[in-house]
Specification:
Elements (H helix, E strand, L loop, with lengths): L1 H4 L7 E3 L1 E2 L2 E2 L9 E3 L25 H5 L11 H6 L16 E6 L5 E3 L4 E9 L6 E7 L7 E2 L1 E3 L14 E8 H7 L1 E8 L22 E8 L4 E5 L30 H4 L1 H8 L12 H12 L37 E2 L6 E2 L2 H12 L8
Antiparallel strand pairs: 1-4, 2-3, 5-7, 6-14, 7-11, 8-9, 8-12, 10-11, 12-13, 13-14, 15-16
Helix pairs in contact: 6-7
Length: 363
């Protein structure tokens, strides 16, 4: 962080006001350190004293929080064993690129008579890198619709930008009804893009896969409702504009969020496994991830190719590794190997081309 604080392109500051008012305690009153582009966990709140030290600070939360470890580090003890708590290669400082959908809201209900719906949300990046592109897909990434980006700042003299951007795209409601799920992703000026799927890590941090929203029919209502991965507000008392929400008969939200609802299946699709338990075929992983989108269980054998017919003459071996490719049936056996033949003439040809020491000489 010292290098960032001394970098003239990074406007680090000590803030005591926000929007013309003294900082609220939630935001760090009396003073908060601001390092634009960094994660919030590195912008210290409630600042009362600054110490200048020769070495890196040893604060517990600085060392043992805000880190992204490799997938094989599955416990605190494993991280300690590999001595990576203080390795700067795993430290989180700048944010990574991310985007999300806020319209439609979780459990929002939209009539099918509406011609178009303006899907919208926000996107951000770290290190002062701009968001260059935001796209929405209705078909799991096969095609993408470019969104309009709404910006709220001009680049600094060094070309840096730090504000979140908003984005919108108009989508016909009949397409939303038929897609089952839609998602958003963002790109930056280096063509870095959000990944399709999450990457498990011990602290669960910095995951930025496509933000996905599921679409459901309102039973008998000539409308659809939308299901976010999780809900933002703690309860309906904090929700706004309740009239536009799809609620159950007892007045509750129809879902806690699809990731909450499918928590066990989500964990099963992306959790780390010991080497001996990892499937050899990556399609087993893919099937679990695909289920999260369709929620349809793959029928056993549905994707298997038709069985190949092998004639008796072409079959070989006896099921053991040692005899793979060796014909085990027949009345005549080669004296030099375990290969068997139906006729003496076949055995002689085998000897001529395989075992005869003069087989490379002209006849």
């Amino acid at each position: 962080a010292r290098e960032v604080c001394m970098n003239p392109t990074r406007p680090c500051m000590l803030a005591f006001m926000m929007n013309g008012e003294l900082l609220h305690p939630d935001h760090g009153y009396p003073v908060r350190l601001l390092m634009p582009g960094y994660i919030g966990g590195r912008m210290i709140k409630w600042l009362t004293k600054i110490s200048v030290t020769e070495g890196e600070g040893q604060n517990y939360y600085h060392l043992y929080d805000n880190r992204v470890f490799p997938k094989h580090i599955t416990s605190k003890d494993e991280a300690t064993k590999h001595k990576i708590w203080t390795d700067p290669m795993y430290t989180i400082n700048d944010r990574n690129i991310n985007s999300a959908i806020w319209a439609p809201a979780h459990c929002e209900k939209v009539s099918l008579s509406a011609g178009k719906y303006t899907v919208g949300g926000y996107a951000y990046n770290g290190a002062g890198r701009p968001i260059h592109r935001v796209e929405v897909t209705l078909n799991d990434g096969h095609t993408w619709m470019p969104a309009t980006i709404h910006r709220f700042e001009k680049p600094s003299e060094f070309g840096m930008v730090y504000c979140w951007v908003h984005w919108t795209v108009d989508v016909p409601v009949d397409l939303l009804k038929g897609c089952g799920e839609f998602a958003v992703r963002a790109w930056d000026d280096s063509q870095n893009c959000q990944p399709e799927r999450p990457s498990w890590n011990l602290m669960g941090m910095m995951n930025n896969p496509w933000f996905r929203v599921k679409v459901h029919d309102v039973p008998g209502g000539a409308a659809v409702w939308f299901e976010h991965p999780t809900r933002v507000e703690p309860n309906l008392g904090h929700a706004w504009d309740k009239d536009r929400l799809y609620l159950t008969a007892d007045g509750q939200l129809a879902s806690p969020g699809w990731q909450e609802r499918l928590k066990a299946e989500y964990s099963e699709a992306f959790k780390p496994l010991p080497l001996q338990e990892q499937p050899l075929d990556g399609e087993e992983y893919n099937d679990k991830a695909r289920f999260l989108r369709s929620e349809n269980v793959k029928k056993a054998g549905a994707a298997k190719a038709s069985t190949m017919e092998i004639s008796a003459e072409a079959r070989s071996g006896d099921g053991t590794v040692n005899n793979v490719g060796i014909k085990m049936s027949g009345n005549v056996m080669c004296e030099h190997c375990s290969q068997r033949f139906d006729t003496e003439a076949a055995k002689k040809l085998h000897f001529k081309f395989i075992h005869d020491p003069n087989r490379h000489q002209e006849d």
